[in-house]
Design brief:
The chain is mainly β. It contains 4 helices and 16 strands. The strands form 2 sheets. Strands 11-12-13-16-15-14 form a 6-stranded antiparallel barrel.
């Protein structure tokens, strides 16, 4: 089943759906944790996002497409602190019905938050190479979703997993999988999270393809950043920020 991975919010794409938390992974290293945040909303959903400026985030369009109030949750000394999202800019070519039409679109949005992130966070470096990944190229996925399928207590902590490329969808998305029916990969809550190659933000987690009855793995889909870089840079500039080179 293809589905998006937004909290408990699930859609379908002939087996595709939005993505959730990282399953079969490990705690994120400090460098990746510093570039990844968690999105919460008044509609009860949760997603992940990459930091691209001190007050800008890059996430999946489907994470913020429904009308609601959105914020990010940041762990602090006195417990979680919520910072409101002040503005949402969806990619102009994002189609929320892409699973039904089976025509992939750039599942991306940029969020401007109401105040700069704490000093422990810093912007990711965006990919510039538009060459499509080859089979076997490794990506490191990060997100705040389930680390154990269906276990709510396993959510809310940023984790990572490394997966190889197994194909390309629509010329704009990369497919990643551990293979052999493994559930390692994105799970509920991981949508919008970053996928890195080395230390470069290369894709944004969007969906998973799973067997019936499962919410994690076995194939994770992510929209490639370099192909959308012009839109990201121009939008960030319009929102008063400069993208890290």
């Amino acid at each position: 089943m293809h589905r998006y991975l937004v909290g408990s919010f699930v859609l379908a794409w002939a087996g595709l759906a939005p993505a959730h938390a990282i399953n079969g992974g490990k705690n994120a290293p400090a460098e990746i944790a510093a570039q990844t945040v968690q999105i919460v909303s008044t509609r009860g959903s949760f997603c992940s996002a990459a930091v691209i400026a001190r007050d800008l985030l890059l996430t999946a369009g489907h994470c913020v497409q429904p009308k609601a109030s959105y914020a990010i949750s940041i762990d602090g000394i006195l417990g979680p602190r919520v910072v409101q999202v002040a503005r949402v800019v969806l990619h102009p070519n994002y189609d929320p019905h892409q699973f039904e039409t089976r025509k992939p679109s750039p599942d991306m949005a940029i969020l401007k938050i109401s105040e700069p992130l704490p000093a422990r966070f810093h912007p990711a470096r965006l990919a510039t190479d538009r060459t499509l990944p080859k089979p076997g190229d490794a990506f490191t996925l990060a997100g705040y979703g389930f680390s154990v399928d269906g276990d709510l207590d396993s959510m809310g902590k940023v984790r990572t997993v490394s997966l190889p490329t197994v194909g390309i969808t629509g010329g704009i998305m990369v497919r990643l999988s551990a293979g052999n029916g493994s559930s390692a990969g994105a799970c509920t809550g991981d949508s919008g999270g970053p996928a890195f190659r080395g230390d470069v933000l290369t894709a944004v987690i969007g969906w998973i393809n799973t067997p019936e009855g499962r919410n994690c793995g076995s194939v994770t889909g992510a929209t490639l950043v370099a192909l959308q870089r012009d839109w990201i840079v121009s939008t960030a500039r319009a929102l008063g920020a400069t993208i890290r080179e």
